[in-house]
Amino acid sequence: MEIPNESFAEPFVQPITDAETERQEILRRYRRLLRAMRPFLKKGDKKLVRAAFEMALEAHAQTRRKSGEPYIYHPLEVARIAVEEIGLGTTSAICALLHDVVEDTDTGLNDIEREFGNVVARIIDGLTKISGLYNRHTNPSEQAENYRKMLLTLADDVRVILIKLADRLHNMRTLESMSKDKQLKIASETTFLFAPLAHRLGLYAIKSELEDLSLKYTHTEIYRDIARKLQETKARRDRFIREFIEPVRAAMNGTGLQFEIKGRPKSIVSIWNKMQKQGITFDQVYDLFAIRIIMDSRPEFEKADCWRAYSVVTDLYQPNPNRLRDWISTPKANGYESLHTTVMGPGGRWVEVQIRTKRMNEIAEKGLAAHWKYKDGQSDSAFDEWLRRIRDVLENPEPNALEFIDEFKLQLYAKDVFAFTPKGDLIKLPGGATALDFAFEIHTDIGMKCIGAKANHKIVPLSYPLQNGDQVEILTSGIQKPRADWMGFVTTAKARNKIRHALREHKRELAQEGKAQLERKLRQWKITGHDGLIQRLASHFKASSLLDFYQLIATERIAINDIQAYLAGEKSVSKKAKAPRLNEDNFERMVRSSNPTTDDMLVIDGGIQKIDYQLASCCHPIPGDEIFGFVTIGEGIKIHRVNCPNAVNLLSKYSYRVVKAKWTLASEVSFLAGIKITGIDDVGIIRNLSDVISGDLKVNMRSISVVSNDGIFEGSIMVYVNDTRQLDTLIKKLKAVKGIQTIDRIDASEED
Ligand code: MN
Q: Ligand 1 centre and the CA of 337: distance in Å?
């Protein structure tokens, strides 16, 4: 007996360290991936795959999975699943190797793009966007919902989805080491989203595995119970299958067809579904397995061979006529082809028999990827064609794919738009939503202080309609306040309400200012006890409320001078009006006198002539404007502009009182119109403006008022013009005045 001399023993080989074991295991897995890729690796591909592997290896060097394994196992496995189990090619393998690099490490998308080009970078960006959503929502079904919609928006490159499926499959296979609540969350998401997706893409094997693994974590008891019973009944079942197959095999041999026949256990989930749906126990489920006959047929004989086999089986066993499914003549939308029948087996038990060729079987297991293998081999164009097919399937569910519509409710989501924050959070908004809506969706304060936006790093207007997948950054400023024109391009109720509220608030502040201003003046003029007086003033100046009245004073749309003049007993409040005042009473008369032969200066359709009409004072229509008539009670017909602030209300509530109207001839008559101007304050600005108006264009100005604030002025001018053409010319000329920033026509006038 030999006694080792410990003190002198030199180890013959260096003991293998843990790090060394791991290194070898990593290489073993890498070589396994390369082996799977060998059939389609082209010259130069291997170098790229190697580079991707090395980049991933380095990026993840410091990280381990929850199980304690080196992180790199995960991307290696995902790549192998993508290639071996889904049938994807080199680009996808590279993307799979790098799929967690951008999200989890310092390596950026730029690095990847530089090294592997923009297709790889784009796919990884897509994968990262999906992952960016992870862990942000507590409710798993909500999370799944987001994923589902995201996947649909990312359908431009289906490889994103397929690699995500590979990723998910590997995560499900290694779910054991996660915490209980993570397990539940990931598993429910898988049932809800990834399994149906795999089904849709024809990846049956992956679908079944995902479902079974999910059930294992979401309904652990049920899963274990069924798995145990399957195990217990296995011997008996195998015996039955042998008994069933025996005569079939003999008869098939007599036909000379090349075939393979076997019993295939059904997935635990499909058994569980059956138990639930039919309210039966495990023992009552008759189809715990299916018999599958797979034939090696020449392409031109596939269909005939399948029916031949069908004939053999049904000669031996009585078929149930209600359970014949022919997906050979009409394949399923996802590409599935097979002939299914259910026959009465030994002992009166129903048995499902699936008949297909090898090609059909491969399609059933690997989905559409297999289609192309049988067509053009693995050429790039065939691959692209395959991707296009999947995209079509995702985007245009065929009429016979009702199940798909049920599963995904595509049309529902077509109305939504999905965009990302710079951090990768998904923001879902109704279709047509703008950058401003996005700002309010993130946070009310961000909306309120919003001054601009960038979509995909480019500056866009706040009114920019979001596109699916946009990454949106909102620019804010501490001094920004919501503006009235924002109401024109926000679509969400949330943003509208917030803006409206803020505008009201602003108006209230203004009113307080105006009130203080008026009170100061009244004191100055030594007028006291003015409660009733202010009511009177407000109604004289046609303010709709006291609040409104004060606000009009604050914004100088009611001039203090005019109030003083009114109080001094003067009738005329406007000193600048030069043109005859055109009111409703003399309008028709003027029209007639200027155009005596006809009274169709204003035509109102429907044959009504010589009617009693007035131009509405809320919007001051002028010839050239689109108009409509509104039948009032006691005041005849009022003519409004189609874009009058009151129009929507009138048209929607009292459409029966609306009459069509249009202008016919231009005329010498002038009409009152208002212009709103903003610009940079300058000493001579008012003079320059009036020079253009009354000098160059000889337009009569009724009034002008300007409010200056911190170097910015805002003003309104009321002018008499013949028609929109003249008004447009005027606006164009005024725009050219130095310092002017905006000029718009105003809907409501300051007087009347
Ligand atoms: Mn991953």
A: 32
- Domain housing 195: 18-218
The larger pLDDT score, comparing residue 31 to residue 644, is at: 31
Residues 105 and 147 in one domain: yes
Is it the case that residue 42 has pLDDT exceeding 70? yes
Q: Convert the pLDDT of each residue in 141-165 to its tens digit.
A: 454 455 555 555 445 566 788 888 9
For residues 118 and 169, membership in a common domain is answered with: yes
Question: 134 alpha carbon to ligand 1 midpoint, in Å?
Answer: 11
Q: Give the CA distances from residue 389 to residues 98, 368, 392, in Å, rounded to whole numbers and listed in that order.
A: 26, 8, 5
Whether 92 and 159 share a structural domain: yes
User: Which of the two residues, 29 and 509, has the higher pLDDT score?
Assistant: 29
Angle at 553 between CA 549 and CA 559, to 5 degrees: 120
Indicate whether 444 belongs to any domain. no
- pLDDT tens profile 448-459: 998 888 887 788
Q: How far is the CA of 75 from the centre of ligand 1 (A)?
A: 7
Establish if 643 belongs to a structural domain: yes
Whether residue 403 is predicted with pLDDT greater than 50 in this model: the reply is no
Annotated catalytic residue 103: yes
**Which candidate in 84, 103, 365, 626 is catalytic?**
103
Residue 345 sits in a domain whose CATH number is 3.30.460.10
Distance (Å) from CA 111 to ligand 1 centroid: 19
- How far, in Å, from the CA of 48 to the mean position of ligand 1? 20
Instruction: Please tell me whether residues 654 and 676 are part of one structural domain.
Output: no
Select which of 104, 113, 225, 584 is catalytic.
104
Q: Same structural domain for residues 189 and 310?
A: no
- Asked if 256 and 357 sit in the same domain, the reply is yes
Domain boundary among 341, 372, 403: 372
77 counts as catalytic: no
Residue 346 shares a structural domain with residue 236 = yes
Going by DSSP bridges, is the β-strand pair 416-420/426-430 parallel, antiparallel, or unpaired?
A: antiparallel
Q: Report the separation in Å between the CA atom of 46 and the middle of ligand 1, taken as the mean of its atom positions.
A: 22
Give the C-alpha distances (Å, rounded to integers) separating 440 from 464, 492, 692: 14, 9, 42
Same domain for 139 and 34?
Answer: yes
Given a contact cutoff of 8 angstroms between Cβ atoms, the answer to whether 98 and 55 are in contact is yes
Residue with tokens 């029948």: 341
Contact between 437 and 419 under an 8 Å Cβ cutoff? The reply is no
Asked whether 362 and 297 are in contact (CB, 8 A), the reply is no
Ligand 1 centre to CA of 462 (Å) is 36
Considering its fold, how many domains does the chain have in total? 4
pLDDT of 224: 93
